[in-house]
């Protein structure tokens, strides 16, 4: 194999998983799952900080505000990173990435929807904990 063909093979390997090489139906499915998984994860991550922001205000401690704000920022940045992956489509083995992203998308969406549905119960529980802790300090 001469240097020119080695360079060509190297070029194919390096660019095999980029978004512009969608050739077969399997490639379309993988790309679709990649985008859909990252989109669902990103949106779910961005739903969670809204709920945590409400919880943060239910507890009567100053440190809760800082910890809550940091947690909200962390989760929001995780969501933004996943949304950016829809555009970037990082090069990696598709099967390995999808083994992580598809279940993560399902768990993220389930968590976000459950937390939203149970907002009242969670806030009541946190207020009860806050009241009990405040009463214990007296």
UniProtKB/TrEMBL annotation:
What keywords appear on the UniProt entry?
Membrane, Transmembrane, Transmembrane helix
* Residues in coiled coil: none
Give the Pfam families listed for this entry. ETR1_N (PF25487)
> Which stretches make up the Ethylene receptor 1-like N-terminal domain?
36-115
Write out the transmembrane intervals: 31-53, 65-88, 94-115
Name of the featured protein = Ethylene receptor 1-like N-terminal domain-containing protein
Species in which this protein is naturally found: Rhizomicrobium palustre
């Amino acid at each position: 194999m001469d240097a020119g063909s080695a360079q060509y093979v190297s070029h194919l390997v390096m660019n095999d998983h980029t978004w512009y090489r969608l050739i077969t139906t399997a490639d379309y499915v993988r790309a679709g799952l990649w985008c859909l998984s990252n989109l669902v994860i990103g949106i779910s991550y961005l739903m969670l900080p809204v709920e945590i922001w409400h919880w943060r205000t239910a507890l009567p401690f100053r440190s809760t505000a800082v910890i809550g704000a940091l947690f909200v920022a962390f989760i929001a940045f995780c969501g933004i990173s996943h949304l950016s992956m829809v555009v970037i489509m990082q090069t990696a083995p598709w099967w390995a990435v999808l083994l992580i992203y598809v279940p993560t998308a399902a768990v993220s969406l389930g968590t976000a929807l459950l937390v939203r549905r149970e907002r009242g119960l969670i806030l009541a529980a946190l207020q009860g904990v806050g009241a009990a802790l405040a009463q214990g300090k007296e």
